[in-house]
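Task card 7
Instruction: Convert sequence to structure tokens.
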Amino acid sequence: MTVRVSLGDRSYDITIENGALDRAGELLAPYAARGRFIVVTDRNIVPNQLYRLETALTAAGIASAVEVLPPGESTKSWAMLEKLTDALLSYGVERGDTIVALGGGVIGDLVGFAAAILKRGCRFVQVPTTLLAQVDSSVGGKTAINSKAGKNLIGAFYQPAHVLIDPTTLDTLPPRETRAGYAEVVKYGLIDDAAFFDWCEANGPKLLAGDPEARAVAIAKSVGAKARIVGEDERETSGRRALLNLGHTFGHALEAETGFSDRLLHGEAVAAGMALAFRFSAAQGLCPAEDARRVTAHIAATGLPATLQAAGVDAGGATLVGHMQHDKKMEGGRLPFLLARGIGETFLDKQVDLAAVEAFLDAERTATA
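Output:
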């Protein structure tokens, strides 16, 4: 199937197809300027997916140069951005060339940002190989690296030329990575589609077990939802796209506390962040306690962290709120929060008292200790 992201002259298609990676030469040929691609991936992707891509490109008569980076969140750094841009320049990249990001969210974010700044803008194509990247980070044009101050603070809105999603790449994904990606699937139900959250409660275990039909439904539903929201609000100017950040304000604080490391994967942090957002909403009298309980129960049942303790975080509220204050969404000393009136009823609140958040997190730390 094909999903269109409608953004005027920056519009692009998302191809979702089992085996699409093996047809990449055919599907991506229109973007192969000078008959070649420069492929950027990480070491974890090489054994299972790089050969499939190279074979498909060769069969279509397309040459490829490959740059392999270390895996993990630490790759989204100034040092790796410099290494990557220097490598791309050494390959003689031109504005008309296309860089292929083959991998998960880290590779997609880094390559997208490099493409945005290299020679003031080169084309790039997303070929996401993780569930998280397929349902979320590969779509929408958010590109970034991390800094000492926080996550994704240095970046650009820069749309890909195409997104090629092959669900069969998930067959070799470690269970932990699959669970981390599933957090972003659940997010779409919690934002504005209560019926889809019901579907997740009923079918999440099948998806996590690798059921192709459940996987196909989840990817199509998630990509369609994100494409629609991005088409309505590409740069978060109206607040509509901000809904996609559900769980991220709490989650980024947890990631910062764990050093942006494999101690807590991004999807795991988002899962815990969504549970915290719903429980905070309930504590503020905004959301039924039963809805917060359902969200927490489903997240925990899938093996994802739903509490500070499960996320491996023992910091107090002041520390975590301190991390939040480096958030790129801070405006006039206020930090917008994605809160909920219920499942499928997320809203943006720009008047949250950080002292209340601090007290809530202190209570959460005590409750889960």
